[in-house]
Structures are given as structure tokens and as C-alpha cells.
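Lab notebook, bench 4. The sequencing result for the construct came back, and we need a structural model before the next group meeting so we can plan mutations. Quick request posted to the team channel:

Model the 3D structure of this chain.
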Amino acid sequence: MTASGPVELIACETCGSIERETHGSTRGERLLAQLRATAAEHEPAFELKLSSVRCLWACSRSCAVHVRSRGRHGYVLCELEPTEACARALLDYAALYAQTADGAVPFKTWPQALRGHFLCRLPAAEHD
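Done. Here's the predicted structure in C-alpha cell form:
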């Protein structure tokens, strides 16, 4: 199976929900907003889809984001900060990921801000 379609960054919208009372939004919602703002400012040279999911089940290691694309391995990153720097690093990683056939981005090219934040790798789906 060959990779095709957009690279998806799926943020957990319930990550850090305890902070909703202080900030008006969860850490996950703030990270997704940062991703959207950064992507709008620095329009990616690849097809990108930004979305959210209610929970990635990484609650004790929030904020979490799932990176995936059809035909490629997927990755869950955790303990991310809802900052512009983190959003930029995720978008930089997504650009590298988009250039791969199978989703395997060489470690030496990972943005420094994401090193140590990968929780797991998910095998590529064999079918739609």
C-alpha cells in the first residue's frame, strides 16, 4: 500500500480539561488553536488536515496528538505544550512525515522540541 491523502494532526480536545476553569479552554483545545493559527500563518506545502477527537486515552500524559496518513504508520505524541513553538514543531514534523512513503521520519531530522514526546507507533491500515 502506498501513502496518499492528507497528513492529519488530530489533537485530543479533552487533554488538560482541569485547566478549562482557569483558561476557558482545555490544553488540547489551546494546542489545536495554536496549530490552526500557525498553519494559517505558514501555509504548509503539503495537504494537511487539522482536527480533534474527544480523547486519545493519554490523560496522564496530556497534551496528546495523533499524526496519521493513509498508508503510513501513525504516531501518538504526548506531554505537549499548547504553545506556538510546539505547534510549529508539529507542523515541521508533519512536513517531514508527508515526504515519506511509510511514515518513518529519521530521528536525526525530528524537531528538537518533539524528541522524547513520542508515545507509540501505530501500523498503517491495510484497507480503507
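The mean pLDDT is 90.
Will bring this to the meeting.
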